[in-house]
Amino acid sequence: MARDYYGILGVDSDAGPDEIKRAYRRLARELHPDVNPDAAAQERFREVSAAYEVLSDPEKRRIVDLGGDPLGNGAGARGGGGDPFSAFGFGDIMDAFFGGQGGGRGRGPRSRVQPGADALIRMHLTLEECATGVTRDLTVDTAVLCSVCTGSGCAPGSVPTMCDICNGRGEVQSVQRSFLGQVVTSRPCPNCRGFGEVIPEPCRQCGGDGRVRSRRSVGVRIPAGVADGMRVRLAGQGEVGPGGGPAGDLYVEVEEEPHELFTRDGADLHCTVELPMTAAALGTTLPLPTLDGMEELHVEPGTQAGTVRTLRGKGMPRLRSSGRVDGHGDLMVHVDVAVPTSLTKEQTELLRQLAALRGEEQPDLAAGNRNGHGIFSRLRDSFR
């Protein structure tokens, strides 16, 4: 039966390399024979070291995830000896205790070719452009592949040579004495910066980096329904990596400009229409601009301030995570009634006549409730 290597380290099956390393370091500090001489602790240390050996190796971890056991029938890692140190390299034990790279086994030179970083550019769009989508050519300034050395960093006709300080290992070692005896530690070679090779004749155009900065034009299509803060990803259009490494992605972030008439709430739009007092009382029909053109807004007689009329499907496109549009939102029209602040004598007299006809010359707050329980009547009753 395959061993539960994740359980031995106390991590989940989806744990990342850093989490696995932290779990091993914590257990190694507790179980190392120089710290805990107990026989059971030594056996546990052997299991922990073997589990880390397996889960830190992508190929062996793949076998575990498929239900197999890359160490066979209980065989120890790296030779399977009974000594806990044989289950894991001495350099990794030092790594667990001190957090650095141990010198018991070489890490090897790091690649000069590295992935590039992502880039971000912002695009200002109007509400109408967000509703319909746009296609534009953007000017971006990013690192691109050097056209002279095509990423190698070497001048034409030259090649990298092995570093004579680290002999191509990419690291140099030093020996120190500690309570464990002689401790061999490693650090990146200062001459080649850990690459294991040096460029004797760097490319004059890129200075040996394999890339140069350049301004270029990139076409981007913004789908209908985007909103402020949304990003469109252009794969492989970001920064080219050092040594001509693969380019990162370019993200185009939308910045939606405020609209003079509409405010946006997701896929819904809101606007306010101010009506004269007479139009609200008598009813009217108004021309209303929408994203699709002009619409007629019918106002019923007696419409009150604060009334909201909903025009279905007259809002923004609903953009799904798949990039497809699924219907449209609504347009909410908020009605505001404007009370005149200055009247002519004739207008004042007409309003007085209307108030007399309606019995409203002297408003009674108690009449606000048909049962006679207005604010004044409730106050009066509270003191009885």
Give a quick set of tags describing it.
single chain; 384 residues; alpha+beta; four-stranded mixed β-sheet; three-stranded antiparallel β-sheet; 28% strand; elongated
Structure description:
The chain has helices spanning 5-9, 17-31, 39-55, 58-65, 84-87, 90-98, 127-132, 277-282, 345-357, 375-382, and strands at residues 101-102, 119-125, 134-145, 161-162, 171-178, 181-188, 197-198, 211-222, 231-234, 250-256, 263-265, 268-276, 284-290, 293-299, 308-311, 317-319, 325-328, 331-338. Helices cover 24% and strands 28% of the residues. It is α+β, with helices and mostly antiparallel strands. It has a 4-stranded mixed β-sheet with strand order 11-12-18-15. A 3-stranded antiparallel β-sheet has the order 1-6-5. α2 packs across α6. The protein has 10 helices and 18 strands. Homodimer. This is Chaperone protein DnaJ.
